[in-house]
Prior knowledge:
Layout: H1 2-12, H2 16-25, E1 31-41, E2 46-57, E3 60-65, E4 68-70, H3 89-93, E5 101-104, E6 112-113, E7 116-125, E8 128-135, E9 141-148, E10 151-164, E11 167-177, E12 182-191
Antiparallel strand pairs: 1-2, 1-12, 2-3, 3-4, 5-7, 6-7, 7-8, 8-9, 9-10, 10-11, 11-12
Amino acid sequence: xxxxxxxxxxxxxxxxxxxxxxxxxxxxxxxxxxxxxxxxxxxxxxxxxxxxxxxxxxxxxxxxxxxxxxxxxxxxxxxxxxxxxxxxxxxxxxxxxxxxxxxxxxxxxxxxxxxxxxxxxxxxxxxxxxxxxxxxxxxxxxxxxxxxxxxxxxxxxxxxxxxxxxxxxxxxxxxxxxxxxxxxxxxxxxxx
Length: 192
């Protein structure tokens, strides 16, 4: 009954804070995610592949790519590419969901992603801003764009979901630096 009420709240009059909190709640506090980053050109030809592990434990996040620790970064450095891929620290950790400055994007309101009606929210921290699409029915993060001014420069979206134990999540995501001529596929192989 509570989940039905929560879904009704999200679909009708949820505030940006409630929608962002819904996205936060879907991210496990302690988790180990293992997978692969695959940098591909526009034709889908693989240019480079890297194994990665994202380990979050007791509010500390560690990222390991091809056996090397990637140091935690903040600010503008969090949007720097990892190993010449399109993927950043922000993409893998979704750290922007914990920023405190957010509001609806009135120009994009009621857009849909993969047929799901979404609320569109702008999150800001200092000079950085990210636009996110949140499914109004489930509260799930559907898509994100890093912005420079009001223009998107990078885009992240899920292309496939999978059930890991009792948790559903995107197990294939794409990240594209707009205009670069390539994109990176993030595959989640295991989640513990």
